[in-house]
Amino acid sequence: MSTAATRPADQDHLWSVDEHLEDILTTVRPLEPIELQLLDAQGCVLVEDVTVPVSLPPFDNSSMDGYAVRVADVAGASEEFPAALEVIGDVAAGQAEPLHVGPGQAARIMTGAPLPPGAETVVPVEWTDGGLGEGPVTGMRARSLAPEGAHGEVHIYRPAEERAHVRAKGSDVKAGDRALEAGTVLGPSQIALLAAIGRGTVRVRPRPRVVVLSTGSELVQPGEALGSGQIYDSNSFSLTAAARDAGAIAYRVGAVADDAETLRSTIEDQLVRADLMVTTGGVSVGAYDVVKEALAHVGDEDEPGSGVEFRKLAMQPGKPQGFGSIGPDHTPLLALPGNPVSSYVSFELFVRPAIRTLMGLEDVHRPRTTATLASDKALTSPKGRRQFLRGTYADGEVRPVGGAGSHLIAALARADALIVVPEDVESVEPGSEVEVVLLG
Prior knowledge:
alpha/beta; seven-stranded mixed sheet
């Protein structure tokens, strides 16, 4: 439950970035674990260690197409004096009844097939005549085209050491080993490992469902014609993409007109599929800032602690913010400003950590570093505000892109970092060390 929801809003209090973030992260809790099929668990976080039930590989097998032989039978083999061995059959991957290789014998073996009893090593087919008697070959003929290759005689032109080209049982992981630790985010390679050890399902925290909703009667969907005084809705697209990048399942809702009742109804309809709601626009002090009007008193008397508080933060861009919980399940809601840069910076600072917290991750923040400011002139910053400027970072240097305006989307598209100017700093000279939030 948000601490903000349990106290009256102080309209004169100027919140710091850290206070606002702390309020969010002490309110949002990781989602409850569920059991999911492997592919459904992609992008989710494990909640328990996974132990290997069966060794990988589960048996000694060949890493090459060739011949399984005894070491003594190919000792001293050369092109001038090849070892001639009797081919007793094929050993293919998945074959149930392996052959037994005796003295003077060889079994034609395929990559991944189990090393047959009696065999001690594998000779690659390129070291042999492939049973054709015509010198070294480059590969085997398909069994369906030349079934006689599984029998007859093969000449081997090079010796092989014991267990050459053999993948040992358990050489990847052994039964009883820990395959994956709790807290691991499941990507393709982790899912491959789970499948390889026979796990069909896994216990994880699900990816949070995030609903993104933009407000404004002036907003038009991309692809439609612009009328007088209208602009395209970019915020809902950028924030939905950012939520997916953070690991969420994100749903974009088309822009809602500046009508409090319509907005309230739309939000209530979307709660059924939301673990977190994000709105953009309508949180400032204008007469048409309907998010404040729609949500400031949405708390239900039967649901103590619900409601959204709108506050001012000591930051630029992104001074107006809203946070609280709504609905019977106290779904967290973050209300972001409507200027494109303000909404994106606010997302990175507040929404992304909330999403990562819902996922159950330990480290929820973007990485930060220090860099040398590479600019033509000093950066200025308003006193008492923590400023976040767009920049490009490379080789220990960060260079500002665009100005400080909250509407400069083109500069945002070129940025891969945020330059942080502390509240007590009003000017930063070129060559100074600055803190940088890395976005890429």
